[in-house]
Amino acid sequence: MKWEDTERQVCSVARALSVLGERWTLLIIRDAFRGTRRFDDFQASLDITRHRLSERLKKLVSAGVLTRVPYQERPVRYEYRLTRKGLALYPILMTLSQWGDDWMDDGNGPPQYYRHSVCGKITRPVLTCDQCGDPLRPEEVSPQQGSVLSSYVTHLKSTGEALPSEGELARAASQYWQAHIKELS
Amino acid sequence: MKWEDTERQVCSVARALSVLGERWTLLIIRDAFRGTRRFDDFQASLDITRHRLSERLKKLVSAGVLTRVPYQERPVRYEYRLTRKGLALYPILMTLSQWGDDWMDDGNGPPQYYRHSVCGKITRPVLTCDQCGDPLRPEEVSPQQGSVLSSYVTHLKSTGEALPSEGELARAASQYWQAHIKELS
Prior knowledge:
2 copies of one chain form a homodimer.
Chain A: H1 12-20, H2 25-33, H3 39-46, H4 50-62, E1 66-72, E2 77-82, H5 84-87, H6 90-103, E3 112-116, E4 125-129, E5 141-145, H7 147-159, H8 166-184
Antiparallel strand pairs in A: 1-2
């Protein structure tokens, strides 16, 4: 599989990573949340080649995560701002940060703490269930197929084909779905 | 900056991404959470070259996210299992999945739903404050420097040097800290 095909998997993790899952991309997003907006400031922070930075920013703009807004005329210059889709990445950054704090501390404690203005306390983010409020633990959460996956599984059963392993299902369903869409169109 | 230097930044997001922030790595972790353990099964799921898969698995083992466990003798064969450090990646995967559901849906609804066995309901993960239980919103959370960052800022102030932008701080502090450690040792 080519990396470019990940976005067509019937899997939200794969689709998210098709936008975010390359070197530097989430560090650009981190900087954007810290208030960085201009090309030269991203470059000063990340110290990567202009070519690579430009390529990553372009991809984030085309995915609708950042938007280019002119901040100067003659010559026109643009800055990059998080869109609503970009701001929605906040929980991903916070869970990455928490994991780094917990498991990649260099022995000097967390580089940063986070104060929650609602309660005024230093906060640790916890992923919870929106229904009961309890923390979500992997052993207490079971995935259930949505309509695309379940229609693919129904198809396999009807033709007597073997079910692929759970790991392969997202990719196989995507191939089936694309062929199916071609048949329909 | 080289990618290999990200782990030395005084920033937990950068440190986390030094392990996770490359193409395929988080898809390997996704498959591990779905129960995939063997090299050939990861390969069947991801359909990437054996060389690349091997390189990624090796890195995850050396970072302590996966561990190699023999499952067969003569010849000895190994499978890959999530460690505690690996299991702690669960909130990162769930927030990625949620963002994919919300923003990269192809119009067919979420590929998967998640049922929470504690309350029995279909759950949407929410990132909340461990102190007050409210959802964490970026505009209500302020970062505060931990000891390494704040000692670096104190140093800059004492020498009258200009403070770098927030985006650059993590990298500059890391350079200062490394020089400082060299002086001490």
